[in-house]
Amino acid sequence: MSNVDLKHYHFDGANAEAIADLRSLSPDDKRQLLMSGVDVEEAHRSGSFMHLNHSGVHCASKREGLELLDIKTALKKHDGLPEYWWKMVDPDKDEFTRAAREHLHGGYFIRAHKGAKLVDPVQSCLFIKGDGVGQNVHNIVVVEEDAELHVITGCAVAHGTREAAHMGISEFYVKKGGKLTFTMIHNWSEETAVRPRSAGIIEEGGVFLNNYVLMKPVKDLQMYPSLTLAGRGAVARFNSVVVAPPGSLVDTGNRILLQAPETRGEIIARTMTTGGTIINRGFIGASAAPARGHLECKGLILNNGRIHAIPELDGSMEGVELSHEAAVGKISQEEIEYLMARGLDEDEATATIVRGFLNVDMEGLPKELEEAINKQIEELDAGDTM
Amino acid sequence: MLIIEDLHVKIGDKEVLKGIDLKISEGETFILFGPNGSGKTTLLMTLMGFGNYEITQGRITFKGVDITRAPIYERARLGIGMSFQRPPTIHGLKTRHLVSMCARDREIDVEGMARNVNFDEFLDRDINAGFSGGEIKRSELLQLMAQRPSLVLFDEPESGVDLENMALIGRTARALLDGAVDPSPAKSMKELKRLRPAGLIITHTGYILEYVNADRGQVMYNGHLCCESRPRDILDHVGKYGYQECVRCLN
User: Fold this and answer.
1) Best to test chain A binding among B46, B72, B74 (most A CBs inside 10 Å)
2) Chain B contacts of A297, Cβ < 8 Å?
3) Smallest Cβ distance to B143: which of A342, A356, A360?
4) What is the pLDDT of residue A295?
5) What residue segments make up the domains of chain B, in order of their start?
6) Of A84, A221, B122, B251, which one is least surrounded by beta carbons within 10 A?
7) B68 Cβ contact list (under 8 Å, min separation 6)
8) What architecture is the B2-250 domain classified under in CATH?
9) pLDDT at B192 over 80
């Protein structure tokens, strides 16, 4: 954890001008945004937010019932957000949370007001452009009673950016009967260090669907988002697709705490290394009954990477049902031969199986984001990674 | 079309096929009988070219090409198609996608073909995920229809299939072996036969004989082929006397 040295990065001076229209970005930047699910046309979006280096540069809410603010504005407007600010994440957890507390650059505050059904997603982009930039953001997402919200957040570095570091605190609050879909796409680079610290709470009957995609190289990424299901009937599901090329170190996992009766939690992770190292953690703890949890981590090793799967289940009451399925291996010869018998050569068969493996059905993704993800999978094929 | 000469095959240390000679001509449907463990499936798997089946002696020629050592996909592209008994599940690969890949560069009507085998509702399911015996057969036939092989290898078309589905599978297998050509006064029977795919079918029960127009048959016994006859005659004989007589035949 301490192999990222914060002294290495500068946390001052990379302030950026406001961007009124995301379409004015350079073609290269636009491409990076698009690959992260951000539509610069802002069509079919409930709102858009962009943070560049040390400044919030774009923030536009387009729907009734949606409050979308830069976090600094929100703190001022709502008296420091006492109900939400550092309530799920402990600011003294580690040096990265401390850095984010002491030197806040920005982040988003997104709130779906009671009963608001925001069908179109809110898109956000946390962007780093320039060498040696360290970025501290702190995000808060609130879904009030019976409201529905989908957030797509793309975190990316500009093409050609050398060393960079991203520290992101995210706190999620899903109230009674609310539903949050949170989709995060990471597009880092070989020299980016990343330390998100995320946690959330889900009240009675609330639903949290979390999708995570990482297919590009990253130097060193570590995160372990945690969700507490605190109300009866709450549901949480994590879907992750992680690919680690040579040089990537990815330590990622999900934690679900089932603390109320009739709660359900599911963690599905597909990880693949083409030479990098992946530590894939998963933890479901249940302390109320009945409660059900299922954890699935499947890893595929191509070339000489490493996948260390650590699934954990902790039940502390009669009546809980927890299960897990973990596998780390290679592509099965039987599957390759089956496809070869249909006329595919060995490379085509391998690529087809890998595409299928990474094809986790993620609920509620807009078409263009699905296409962006598929394109990333195609690009994996195109390279010599397989 | 297919010529097998003195074929010996080992699985691990065990010799399973001990000198097989067999010729199948264009448009001919050949039925293979034999008790469990006699080597029937091994013969099919070896013809398709699977890795665990080691050819220690002999030769396989298909359409004049020596394919004894050819990789699986080359055999498939030359026109050999196989219906698998227990195909693997491939997660995330939709049946629809696989069927269209079977056609390679040809445009095909996947939906229409799927309706023919009552399988259109399965097109968006992962291939073979939770398929029943009958569903596997329909899925395999659908893939073969898209692939359009000139030699169909079919391992026990009736296994795991209920009676209702047997008729559908039998008719589809028949259509596959009849090829895409309709009888026409402009072509002679001989020409038509040349256009039809050939078939090599393994059967235990013989139900498939109700549907396909089988030309010849033989019994595989302990790694040897014996008792060439009309398929129905073999079935009747085995039904009455079992495979006992094959031992005598071979000695």
Assistant:
1) B72
2) none
3) A342
4) 97
5) 2-250
6) B251
7) B55, B58, B59, B60
8) 3-Layer(aba) Sandwich (3.40)
9) no
Predicted complex: ipTM over 0.90: yes
Tokens coding B237? 């004989």
Q: Quick check: B91 and A357 in contact, CB under 8 A?
A: yes
Closest CA to A122 of A16, A50, A188: A50
The answer to whether A18 and A136 are in contact (CB under 8 A) is: no
Q: Each residue of A50-73: pLDDT tens digit?
A: 999 999 999 998 899 999 999 999
Angle among Cα B246, B247, B251 to the nearest 5 degrees reads 115
Q: In Å, what is the CA distance from B241 to each residue of A382, B75, B228, B245? A: 60, 38, 16, 7
Q: How far is A339 from chain B (nearest CA, A)?
A: 8
Provide the shortest C-alpha distance from residue A384 to chain B (in Å).
22
Chain B interface, Cβ < 8 Å to A: 48, 50-51, 71-73, 76-77, 81-82, 84, 87-88, 90-93, 98, 101-102, 104, 126, 143, 147
- Look at residue B89 and tell me whether its pLDDT is greater than 90: yes
A340 → chain B, closest CA residue: B73
Cβ-Cβ contacts under 8 Å, B81 against chain A = 341
Provide the β-strand partners of residue A137: A106, A168
* C-alpha of B83 from chain center: 6
Place of tokens 């199986």: A353
- CB nearest to B90's CB, from A333, A356, A358: A356
Sequence-ordered list of residues with C-beta below 8 angstroms from that of B137, at least 6 positions apart, any chain: B83, B157, B160, B161, B165, B169
Beta strands in chain A (DSSP E): 47-52, 55-61, 66-70, 108-112, 122-128, 133-143, 148-157, 164-174, 179-187, 192-202, 207-214, 220-223, 226-229, 235-244, 249-258, 263-273, 277-286, 291-301, 306-315, 320-329
Among A46-55, A59-68, A154-163, A321-330, name the one with the lowest average pLDDT: A154-163
Q: Output the average pLDDT for chain A.
A: 92
Nearest alpha-carbon partner for A197 in A101, A107, A89, A279: A89
